[in-house]
Amino acid sequence: MTHLLGMAVAALMMSAALPLSAQTLIADTVSFQLAKVEKVLSTETELIPGTVTTVSLQTLSLQVLEGPHKGELMTLQNERGPLKAGDRVYLRHTVNVDEHLDTWSVGEPYRLPVILFIVALFVACICIFGGMQGIRGLVALIGSLFFISVFLLPGILHGYSPVLVSMGVSALIIVLGSYVTHGFNRTTSAAVVGMLITIGITGAFAFWSIDAAHLTGFASEETTYLNFGTAGSIDFVGLLLGGIMIGLLGVLYDAAIGQAVAVEELLRAGINSRKHLYARGLRIGREHIGALVNTLAIAYVGASLPLLLLLQISGNTNPAMTLNQELFASEIVRTMVGSIGLILAVPITTLVAVYLLWGRIKHEPGAPVHHH
């Protein structure tokens, strides 16, 4: 009896100590240091347990190039992709104080020099071939990225509605980007008004589509990790809607500016009937729609290529069931809503441009006059 009582008291003390020990747990400390591959010691091909897939496994000798371990030589295994002597790579250093573990592993290859070269080449092409207009577009792009990084992302992470934040940032990008690139004039204003109206209509339709399709926004691993990382404070349905709006902006901008400029040029050519001007502008827009909708759809397909390949090898013989899954349904809704918004931008912007520019764009001498 005394033995049982002693066990009970010991169990009670252990249970009381568990919360205290849990509170004293220290999280792993993770840091990254740049290293250089000195030598590839061996390369082997191994079978992943439980599968028929093989993986290439390298044993590398590496020298740490920075941090408190600078100059140290390490021998580590690499299965993230083939490396050769002279390559640079980030090493992941994990320290677990509670279990007294100090581990190193090979992380991502050092890609920054290549990325910076590609960015520099992009900027050079804009400056050389785009001239002043290209430079203005580059400034507008930098401004758009600034609004996204300073207003959109922090706003969503701080718990504000992704819908309202996305709509507000979209409006900022449209207004400031358009005027910076194309100047303050009625043609740009027509494009801006057309885009704002289109964003409003498309946003309302996207909201209805997401609600009607019962989409939750949890279609990928990234959203699951983000939900845990933010303790469930983000509205993922709103985040899905915001993503649709932001994704539409680039192609929408192209369509709206193109339509406003087309109406301006038709007016300069001497068309003297609003109805005929709208019909001619819409005719140009229809050709633009055909190209842009195809561009938008193919862009989404390109981004979802691994997903489509996974579908091909899954062996699922029920296409309806596959399309009903949120992973695919979200992409379909995203593509279709974006395409509908793009299509609506053409007649809306054309109509706005006709009324804003009519009577204010003068016929250029030497241009043919159309009588009706």
Oligomer: single chain
Q: What is the residue-averaged pLDDT?
A: 81
String of helices and strands: HEEEEEHHHHHHHHH
Radius of gyration over C-alpha positions, nearest whole angstrom? 29 Å
Helical fraction equals 55-70%
Q: What is the C-level CATH assignment of the largest domain?
A: Mainly Alpha
Terminal residue distance: 111 Å
User: What can be said about the biggest beta sheet?
Assistant: 5 strands, antiparallel
CATH architecture of the largest domain: Up-down Bundle
The count of strands amounts to: 5
Structural class of the helix and strand makeup? alpha+beta
Fraction of residues in β-strands: 5-15%
Strand order of the largest sheet: 3-2-1-4-5
Q: How many helical elements?
A: 10
Can you characterise this structure?
The protein has two domains: 29-110, OB fold (Dihydrolipoamide Acetyltransferase, E2P); 129-357, Multidrug efflux transporter AcrB transmembrane fold (Up-down Bundle). It is built from ten helices and five strands, in the order αβββββααααααααα. The protein has a five-stranded antiparallel sheet, with no helix packed on it. The chain is of the alpha+beta class and 372 residues long. Strand 4 (88-96) and strand 5 form a beta hairpin. The chain has helices spanning 2-23, 112-157, 162-182, 186-212, 221-229, 236-268, 274-303, 305-313, 319-324, 326-357; strands spanning 29-47, 54-64, 73-78, 88-96, 101-109. Residues 1-23 and 366-372 have low confidence and may be disordered.
